[in-house]
């Protein structure tokens, strides 16, 4: 059974405060997710800002249009620095996503690090090689483009 990491960085010519204001609102996640994924937040009365221990429920269609439930918990938050979301229910055996913001002399560097383990042991490892790692790249490439348009 494989364990994998995916890392993506993006530089913005905006302040940490501006970026944090956007990414710390769970409601903005749909704006930076490809439409074909059918992403819908199902949590009612979702607050405007995340907090440690917050549970967010989604419906998403990552493959073949099949809707699946995805439940994440915001496990760590350091204001204007980073937050971590971890899958509690969903398609992966393990999903741990770190989001970092760092002020630089050229703006703000945003770094995403996704540590994940597909289900199904060796079949999950094969699926990662054939589908999952490419799908993650595609999703984060879309996010890069969407965030560039927003900012």
Shape: globular
CATH structural class = Alpha Beta
The largest sheet, given as strand count, sense and whether it forms a barrel, is: 7 strands, antiparallel
CATH architectural label:
2-Layer Sandwich
Summarize model confidence as the mean pLDDT.
95
Q: Rg to the nearest angstrom?
A: 15 Å
Short summary of the structure?
The protein is of the alpha+beta class. It is 25% helix and 38% strand.
Topology overview:
Layout: E1 4-12, H1 16-23, E2 40-41, E3 55-60, E4 68-78, E5 82-89, E6 94-104, E7 107-117, H2 121-150
Antiparallel strand pairs: 1-7, 2-3, 3-4, 4-5, 5-6, 6-7
Describe the structure in your own words.
The chain is an alpha+beta fold and 151 residues long. The protein has a single domain, classed as Alpha-D-Glucose-1,6-Bisphosphate, Chain A, domain 4 (2-Layer Sandwich), CATH 3.30.530. 25% of the residues lie in helices and 38% in strands. The chain contains 2 helices and 7 strands. A 7-stranded antiparallel sheet has the order 1-7-6-5-4-3-2, with helices on one face. β4 (68-78) and β5 (82-89) form a beta hairpin. The termini are far apart. The model has no long low-confidence stretch (mean pLDDT 95).
Q: Which features does this protein show?
A:
alpha+beta; 7 strands; 151 residues; 2 helices; Alpha-D-Glucose-1,6-Bisphosphate, Chain A, domain 4
């Amino acid at each position: 059974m494989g364990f994998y990491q995916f890392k993506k960085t993006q530089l913005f010519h905006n302040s940490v405060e501006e970026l944090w204001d956007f990414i710390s609102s769970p409601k903005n996640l749909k704006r930076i997710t490809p439409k074909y994924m059918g992403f819908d937040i199902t949590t009612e009365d979702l607050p405007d800002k995340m907090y440690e221990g917050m549970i967010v429920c989604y419906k998403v269609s990552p493959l073949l249009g099949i809707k699946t439930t995805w439940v994440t918990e915001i496990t760590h938050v350091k204001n204007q620095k980073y937050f971590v979301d971890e899958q509690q229910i969903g398609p992966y055996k393990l999903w741990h996503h770190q989001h970092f913001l760092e002020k630089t002399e050229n703006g703000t560097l945003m770094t995403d690090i996704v540590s994940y383990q597909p289900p199904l042991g060796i079949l999950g490892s094969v699926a990662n090689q054939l589908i999952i790692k490419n799908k993650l790249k595609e999703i984060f490439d879309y996010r890069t483009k969407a965030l560039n348009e927003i900012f």
